[in-house]
Amino acid sequence: MHAMEQGSVQEHGRSRKLSKIWVINEHVRVGLAETLSTYVMMVFGLGSVAQVVTGRGVFGEYLSVNLGFGLGVAMGVHIGGRVSGAHMNAAVSFSMCLFGRLGWRMLPVYILSQLIGSFLAAGTIYSLYYDAIYHYCGGNLTVSGPKATAGIFATYPATYLSLHAGFLDQVIGTAMLLLCLMALSDQRNQPAPSGGEPIAVGLLVLLIGVSLGSNSGYAINPSRDLGPRIFTAIAGWGPEVFRAGNGWWWVPVLAPMVGGVTGASIYKVFVELHHPSPCEHRREIEDEAEEEAAPLDMQKYLSPEVCV
Amino acid sequence: MHAMEQGSVQEHGRSRKLSKIWVINEHVRVGLAETLSTYVMMVFGLGSVAQVVTGRGVFGEYLSVNLGFGLGVAMGVHIGGRVSGAHMNAAVSFSMCLFGRLGWRMLPVYILSQLIGSFLAAGTIYSLYYDAIYHYCGGNLTVSGPKATAGIFATYPATYLSLHAGFLDQVIGTAMLLLCLMALSDQRNQPAPSGGEPIAVGLLVLLIGVSLGSNSGYAINPSRDLGPRIFTAIAGWGPEVFRAGNGWWWVPVLAPMVGGVTGASIYKVFVELHHPSPCEHRREIEDEAEEEAAPLDMQKYLSPEVCV
Amino acid sequence: MHAMEQGSVQEHGRSRKLSKIWVINEHVRVGLAETLSTYVMMVFGLGSVAQVVTGRGVFGEYLSVNLGFGLGVAMGVHIGGRVSGAHMNAAVSFSMCLFGRLGWRMLPVYILSQLIGSFLAAGTIYSLYYDAIYHYCGGNLTVSGPKATAGIFATYPATYLSLHAGFLDQVIGTAMLLLCLMALSDQRNQPAPSGGEPIAVGLLVLLIGVSLGSNSGYAINPSRDLGPRIFTAIAGWGPEVFRAGNGWWWVPVLAPMVGGVTGASIYKVFVELHHPSPCEHRREIEDEAEEEAAPLDMQKYLSPEVCV
Amino acid sequence: MHAMEQGSVQEHGRSRKLSKIWVINEHVRVGLAETLSTYVMMVFGLGSVAQVVTGRGVFGEYLSVNLGFGLGVAMGVHIGGRVSGAHMNAAVSFSMCLFGRLGWRMLPVYILSQLIGSFLAAGTIYSLYYDAIYHYCGGNLTVSGPKATAGIFATYPATYLSLHAGFLDQVIGTAMLLLCLMALSDQRNQPAPSGGEPIAVGLLVLLIGVSLGSNSGYAINPSRDLGPRIFTAIAGWGPEVFRAGNGWWWVPVLAPMVGGVTGASIYKVFVELHHPSPCEHRREIEDEAEEEAAPLDMQKYLSPEVCV
Questions:
Q1: Residue A284 to residue B26: CA distance in whole angstroms
Q2: Nearest 5 degrees, angle CA A28-CA A34-CA A35?
Q3: Quick check: A286 pLDDT over 60?
Q4: How far is it, in rounded angstroms, from Cα D85 to Cα D95?
Q5: Distance of CA B1 to the CA centre of its chain
Q6: pTM above 0.80, yes or no
Q7: Which residues between 242 and 281 in chain D have a beta carbon less than 8 angstroms from any beta carbon of chain C?
Q8: How much of chain B is helix, strand and coil, in % rounded to 5?
Q9: C-alpha distances out from residue B45 to B52, B122, B228, C161, D195, Å
Q10: Which superkingdom, per the lineage (chains A, B, C, D) (predicted)?
């Protein structure tokens, strides 16, 4: 008995140590996956913008950019999906923390990984399209004007857009993103089909680009915007990337945080909170049956095996 | 026994009361989901039109609008699919009632929710693209002419279209919609794959936009058209939105009702009524086997476990 | 025993009679489904051409036509898939007969249904776009020239295309169609996922339009081309629809028959004939294992439960 | 017992002989499937380029080419997927060999089959678009200049691209391809859904075209580029196809080999090596549970039945 107790203490000690190693390992594991997810999404996304801008209409159009970011997000989810969840977006990570789906201690790991990933992707696209960019702008790297190339990497608002309208633009865009992400993962509703989550999320981002993108280029993601902006500041475009658009840079960093939480909350208030417990629901619908026909597809919801 | 009877009466009373509460709850639950579904579909749909119109060809083209409404419908189905069925269209709800798949008492809940959802979406897009719209039209909100912007929100007929041709246009468009929706949900035929219903319905709407949209903008949906039209009347375009196109506004309200029922009936008459009961069918096909080869894929239909 | 024999004879007689009724019913059932499938495919397909032609570039582009026919085919498969197989193409039905997957007696039912379906679809699109067509061409229905509108309904060759090159064009296009259809339905290879057959076939047709369409409009289908051509001859374009392109009309009727059989045969010779019986294959691969690594994904093919 | 031993020896001899026959058969079987896969992919891919080039903007645009190669790859995977794995790309086959998923002895079979397939596809497209090509360039087959047509078959670099930048372009493009292919087939992560592999790989190739294609036409595949280049050298464009772009031809042959291995290695280092064994992982996460919330979706990973 004494020996057993000792063993149990030793076991406990070993478990503690292992646990600590595992925490570090887990941080590394999640961090590497999140970095690579974000990197892949951003190489495809920024690549599509670079191609459209430097291609002068011959190598794609606005729809190509929507496809580049949409399918890029889908591939990013394939890269890190089951390891880190492939948020690739600080606003998503922040909302997940706020709603208890991710520990707050993991938040810095996610955000740092995402920033590293998007910074490296900006560097990759800069190297890949170096000749194309210099050929396009004649070697003059500008943030605004007819041959501006900073917009390949970070987002800038349309000239007509006021700063507070731009803030609203980013809040609404990110709210729509999180609202739909909540629905796509709600197993008590009509979620993305099993295995089809990456393409469903990708089509959602494509859709946002098609409908909510013209005001300021639908960053809806601090990690997507800040990393490449820092890269351009260093790589030759200079501090103007932070001054342009009345100091626009902080809007796609802050507004998506507000929007993400807003969107997720709207889904909760309008749909998730009202999901009945299956048994309660079933009993009542049986009482109800002769009085009122159930709306279409409700039958699917009533799984008989749950309440028997 | 006496006590038990009393208990049963009490039980019954409680059940009645619970039932009533549940009816109200259910109305709220379905109504909120239907409102949010319609809202999400319309924000994406109207957003894509606003972007194409105010973007002057730089931020998308006609195909972007088809994608905006198509994928918008898919996301709407994800939002409310298992709660309200996500009709998002009064013509769909009306047809469901007529064919006994939805109680008539629920119809006002659906239609009201849809109108609220599409009205709010129009308001959201107006706020989001306020600067863009004013920049585009110079502050002059018009229903027709070269810088018309009312068409961002509600549909208007092409100048060459007579009113009765427009009525036919909306009847045929909605008939094709319901005809295909019937097939996509017919479990005895080749329905949308399980979990893939949202994207299947979305592709159907994209397809209608690609092929039946140029006459009058494929409203094929009273809820999609009337809510935003009322919004524009209030927000600055004035009563002209109801007078334009020879008083076009009532066509996309009434014609889809006629079209929806027509389309669903055609599917019933051509396909659904002829589905054999599985057992009868199987016995006969066995008699038949040596005389006539079964057409492709019929084997799948004959599930041996059903009739043994 | 006597009574039983009598009963059995009666049973036999009843079965014969039922069988005959069932044959007629089955013809009607299959014919109606095939008619509606073809009708739906053609309304969407022809509608997309009408929209692009009469819309003068504002309501879609060449890609819209590819989407219209591609997704139109997908919807057609949903309409008739489990009833008639939804061939919607006489070249497909003919190939199915030749390879023993459809009784020859059913061939006239299929072809007639397809012609009726495509003829009615041409009529529907003519009614729907009547105002648009007259507005576009000023009421002058021509088969060639700058404002030609016959090409909305049937296909015509490019001016540079010789007749024998056009024949080759239709043979190759239909061969690629059937070759890929064979693969998509080959359960011993990598077929379309269960439930995803309609969209897989639709993407195949979209792909053919994107890559093999510019010579003569990728009819690759006698039923798609002949029905609407007859309609236009009657509806106002006159006998010129049969004379245009050096009497082009018979090419998309005959060449697809040749091409379909060729394509299906190529798949058989290159892939299907070489499928090993699962047990034989498995035993040999086990002998082989240490000598040669199996190519990627072969493991999936070796289902252990089959040969134990 | 003696007889049995003899039998066993005979059995062994027969098995040896059968095995040898089977090796040859297997080479033929895999070779034919790989040839047809590559052929189908290339007919659709090259066809889409031919159509866009000779169609002068009327029959598709750059996006059509992305769709042609993307969906062409998907169809190719359907053709040979379960037989040869449908690599259709020497860089994929080479990487598979290097990572032990394919025996080196099979490599020549794959590469030869792929070259034959792409050569034959170039011949098919040349026949099919013979009239269109001659009509477009007036019979003067050139490799560069305003009416160049060699680019229909093989890739050529943009005029601004230096040779070493082009090498980097092909390395990065192929690295992204293999990196994502590794993720799409990693069953311990978020792979392509079962049955959806062909379309997932197709969308990946479409994505690469949309984002990494404008520098040099995204060959990212020695088999895709060399076969058609040899064909054009023979068919009338002459040795200039090997001299153009400073002797560009060897870049899309060699660089993808480097890129493929690089990309696959990056996925291994960032993600695959860190997959925990399910049991170890589960025990530690249980110790951990109260200290740190698991990131989103990790629950799915912990399959309870594995470690009980």
A1: 10
A2: 85
A3: no
A4: 13
A5: 54
A6: yes
A7: none
A8: 70, 0, 30
A9: 11, 10, 12, 42, 31
A10: Eukaryota
B211 and C43 Cβ atoms separated by less than 8 Å: yes
Chain A to chain D, count of Cβ pairs less than 8 Å apart?
188
Going by C-alpha positions, the residue among A268, A230, A271 that lies closest to residue A249 is A230
- Residue B277, class by beta-carbon neighbours within 10 Å (0-12 exposed, 13-18 middle, 19+ buried)? exposed
Q: Does residue D179 belong to the interface with chain A, where contact is any CB pair within 8 Å?
A: yes
Provide ipTM, 2 decimals.
0.85
Residue listed under structure tokens 């819309």? C55
Write down the pLDDT at residue C11.
53
Q: Touching check for A226 and chain D: CB below 8 Å? A: no
C271/D15 touch (CB, cutoff 8 Å), yes or no: no
Mean pLDDT of C167-174: 97
**Contact C60/C114 with Cβ under 8 angstroms?**
no
Among all residues of chain B, which has the CA nearest to that of C130?
B165
| Chain C: touching chains (3 or more CB pairs < 8 Å) | B, D
Give percent above pLDDT 90 in chain C. Answer: 76
D81 touches chain C (CB under 8 A): yes
- Confidence band of D236 (pLDDT split at 50, 70, 90): very high
CB contacts < 8 Å between C and D, how many? 187
**Cβ distance of A297 and B82 shorter than 8 Å:** yes
Q: Is B196 on the interface with A (CB under 8 A)?
A: yes
pLDDT above 60 for A210: yes
* Nearest residue to A203 (alpha-carbon basis) of A71, A45, A48: A71
* One-letter amino acid for residue C111 of the chain: I
Q: Rounded to whole angstroms, how far apart are CA atoms B157 and B214? A: 9
A47 in reach of chain D (CB within 8 A):
yes
Answer positive or negative: Cα dihedral of A157, A160, A164, A165.
negative
| Torsion angle defined by CA atoms of residues D192, D198, D201 and D206, in that order, rounded to the nearest 10 degrees | -130
Give yes or no for a contact between A260 and A94, defined as CB atoms under 8 angstroms apart. Answer: yes
Residue B143 has pLDDT above 80, yes or no: yes
Average pLDDT of the residues in D69-86:
95
Kind and range of the H or E run holding D29: helix D2-54
Please give, rounded to a whole number of angstroms, the shortest distance from the CA of C120 to a CA of chain B. Answer: 13
Task: Count other Cβ atoms within 10 Å, centred on residue C233.
Answer: 18
- Using the Cβ of A229 and the Cβ atoms of chain D, whether some distance falls under 8 Å is answered with no
Alpha carbon distance A174, A172 (integer Å): 6
Q: CA torsion sign, A283 to A289 to A294 to A297?
A: positive
DSSP state letters, A30-97 = HHHHHHHHHHHHHHHHHHHHHHHHHTTTSS--HHHHHHHHHHHHHHHHHHHTTTT----SHHHHHHHH
Residue C193 zone, left/alpha/beta (φ > 0; ψ -120 to 50; rest) = beta
Torsion of CA A197, A199, A201, A206, to 10 degrees: -170
Nearest to C81 among B161, B190, B204 (CB): B190
Question: In chain A, which residue's Cα lies nearest the Cα of B185?
Answer: A297
Amino acid identity, position C96: M
Kindly list the partner chains of chain A, i.e. chains with 3 or more CB atom pairs below 8 Å.
B, D
- CB B183 to CB C75 under 8 A? yes
Q: What is the DSSP letter of B233?
A: I
Query: Position of tokens 């040899």?
Result: D230
